[in-house]
Amino acid sequence: MKQSTRFTTKVALIVALGGFLMGFDASVISGVVGFIETDFDLTKIELGFSVSSLALTATLAMMLAGPISDRIGRRPVLKIAAVLFALSAVASAGAPDFITLVIARMVGGLGVGAALIIAPMYIAEIAPAAIRGRMVSFNQLNIVIGISAAFFTNYLILTLGQSDIAWAESLRLGEWNWRWMLGIETLPAVLYFFALLIVPESPRWLAMQGREEDAREVLERVSGAEQARLDLQAVRDSIEAEAEVGGVSLKALFHPSMKLVLTIGISVGILQQITGINSVFFYSPMIFEQSGIGTNAAFMQAVLVGLVNLVFTVAAMALIDKLGRRPLLGFGMTGIAVCMLTLAYGFGQATYTLDQDAIDKLPAEIERTQITAVADTTYESDIDFREALSKAVGANVYKQHESALVSNAINMNPLLILFAILGFVASFAISIGPIMWVLFSELFPNNVRGMAISFVGLINSAVAFLVTFIFPWELQNIGNAGTFLIYGMFAVVGLVFVMRILPETKGRSLEELEQILVRH
Exposed site from 11, 32, 182, 383, fewest CB < 10 Å? Predict the structure, then answer.
């Protein structure tokens, strides 16, 4: 590996640690929801808000992070994000009530939004065109490593808390399991802050500020003196051309010249979230419990979700600059549609019956006399089963023992559910997961890139908030099959639309793409 490539790779990996923190912070809640629902006696709407509140402030941060980074630089914004991650982790772990937990999560959401926007933007602005897709994909790779780490640490804390190991008991991992799950993020957040101290500022940002000598020094370390001269001239020409369109404002995004790139950005941003990826990442133990496998097995299968996500993200990084963005996106979105429709079918075929053998296996806290009214009755949907059991034993008792009741009553193929979810995650990870951020970093002109990525990122995050907020309510009121059917239909429609308007962007410089996609 050439010295310049090593330098670019090192910088990209450090900056992409923001993606690790984003993935960890967002997904660690998946192991927490079951505990806080009973500890804080939450409704399904409150439970959904405890998860989605992070996306709410991430949406705000996405809108502000780009313009702020255009003013003060990319690196200072990432350092602020690292501080917010650390504060959120400490406050979430010590939250005495639901409101405090939500506020702490919202602080973390500000860090998520900033890192999610600025990290890929920075990497795109420093990486040469030939390896830009792979370098930007480091951010998505770190996101999925963070997601995997969250699933694994959740499972590890859960199992250690149930053990009789002395040091685990002294740390009260069993009693404070969900608090440890949230608080452990403090360590990587502090590491990220100090690692950013050795990262240079974005050369394109430096050039936009008139600091061309500083920009040249960074570019020479990236691609050598001659290529640095050419890149700097291309950036200068781009800035001068964009100055004729207007200043960096929201109004500039809606200039007729931006119609195509903005349509692509918004469409891809919506499609990435509306097919249900955050429902799987944030609620995977809950989904697996609905298939009847029990709590510990549900946490273990969530770890598999993280590992599959990681493996196929690495595959995407290896292929994105070889095959291109369009082939991967088409392949992956097809897989997403098929897997979501398979989930709908699998849950739609499930039946629920509590016979005497099943009743004998239920926790002793459930009154057997209350179960008599529903014994040996077969229910064709999870909604009917939930309503009947909640009426028989009480809503609070059902909520507390839902996993045991479902696992003992359900008759379905849990392997079908497992393979469909893993297939969905694999399809997402090799396509629209990393490709969306690569496209966001490629599509928009230099002097509006910060504002443009913030705008489409805001839309992406707003959809993520809505999806995660209503998911528990959907399961309760629409049912498992209906919820996944909706996601599958969105995937089919989105695939057809996006593939009709998306051009191939691989191997072209940012300035070349601007000439092709933006009508000056």
Answer: 383
Claim to verify: residue 63 and residue 125 sit in the same structural domain? yes
Looking at the structure of the chain, the number of domains it has is 2
Quickly list DSSP for 321-357.
Answer: TTT-HHHHHHHHHHHHHHHHHHHHHHHHT-EEE--HH
| DSSP string covering 89-133 | HHHHHT--SHHHHHHHHHHHHHHHHHHHHHHHHHHHHHS-GGGHH
Closest to 371 (Cα-Cα) out of 379, 380, 384, 362 = 362
In this prediction the pTM is 0.73
Q: Are residues 138 and 235 in the same domain?
A: yes
Residues 41 and 117 in one domain: yes
152-205 confidence digits (pLDDT tens): 898 888 888 888 888 888 888 888 888 999 999 999 999 999 999 988 888 888
The SS3 assignment for 467 reads helix
Tell me how far apart the alpha carbons of residues 305 and 419 are, in angstroms, rounded to a whole number: 10
Of 391, 411, 431, which residue is a domain's last? 411
59 token code pair: 């949406």
DSSP 502: P
Residues 359 and 475 in one domain: no
Q: Which of 411, 427, 446 is the last residue of a domain?
A: 411
- Burial label for 356, CB within 10 Å (0-12, 13-18, 19+), is exposed
Average pLDDT for runs of 10 along the chain of length 520? 72 88 84 86 88 85 85 92 94 93 93 86 80 76 85 87 84 87 92 91 84 83 79 74 58 74 87 89 78 69 84 85 85 94 92 86 81 85 87 82 81 88 93 83 72 80 86 88 94 88 69 63
Domain residue limits at 379: 351-411
Strands (E), 464-517: none
**Which CATH number characterizes residue 43's domain?**
1.20.1250.20
CA pair distance 484, 346, nearest whole angstrom: 10
Q: Residue 251, CB half-sphere, CA atoms under 13 Å: how many?
A: 3
In a domain, 340, yes or no: yes
